[in-house]
Write a sequence for this structure.
């Protein structure tokens, strides 16, 4: 565990909690893509099946359980409890166009052709693009609430910090996982446009509105 | 020894 990895995990945890808190506090999931949340729930479920087969540490297991529980709690809030506030008319990104290629790629490019390994690989590929429906929703409405942009910033930072963690681990531990690194780069690049807007607008106290 | 099998990352 190095500082990049730890801050990455905390940033990830913070993102998930900000989202739950925002929906709960405002009693509304407006501006949040339920489709991205379906993809994230799929990602955690596919990746953390090793909770049943492999024990790494208490930290590892607790974080995994929190991520899975929070993902399904978020889905419950969006699709059941605060269903009336869900922005379904704007949340129209076709997730099958992400799910199918990721599944296919996981079957072809993986470390080992076993069920758990292919599911892990699928989750890595899917996570890298899972935010697209959310970014699509923001671009469609042309704006995001400030709390939603904090959520996106924390979520995007997490994989960027993991990239630093992988650079660190490569130099100091000789560790590298090409699948995770390439997917992590793709994931981080997808946020770049958003990071720019966040830094130039939200931090200066303005609302995140896309340039017309 | 394949180090990628030890999945300590989240």
């Amino acid at each position: 565990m190095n500082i990049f990895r730890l801050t990455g995990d905390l940033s990830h945890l913070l993102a998930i909690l900000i989202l739950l808190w925002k929906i709960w506090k405002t009693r509304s999931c407006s501006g949040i893509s339920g489709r991205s949340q379906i993809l994230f729930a799929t990602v955690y479920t596919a990746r953390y099946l090793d909770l049943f087969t492999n024990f790494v540490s208490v930290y590892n297991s607790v974080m995994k359980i929190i991520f899975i529980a929070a993902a399904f709690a978020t889905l419950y809030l969006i699709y059941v409890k605060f269903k009336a506030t869900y922005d379904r008319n704007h949340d129209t990104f076709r997730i099958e166009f992400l799910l199918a290629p990721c599944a296919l790629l996981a079957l072809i490019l993986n470390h080992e052709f076993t069920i758990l390994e292919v599911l892990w690989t699928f989750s890595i590929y899917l996570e890298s693009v899972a935010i697209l429906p959310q970014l699509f929703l923001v671009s469609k409405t042309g704006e995001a609430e400030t709390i939603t942009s904090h959520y996106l910033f924390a979520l995007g930072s997490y994989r960027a910090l993991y990239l630093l963690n992988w650079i660190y681990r490569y130099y100091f531990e000789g560790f590298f996982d090409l699948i995770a690194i390439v997917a992590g780069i793709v994931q981080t690049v997808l946020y770049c446009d958003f990071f720019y807007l966040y830094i130039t607008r939200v931090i200066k106290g303005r609302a995140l509105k896309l340039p017309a | 020894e394949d180090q990628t099998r030890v999945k300590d990352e989240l």
Remarks:
- The mean pLDDT of chain B is 68.
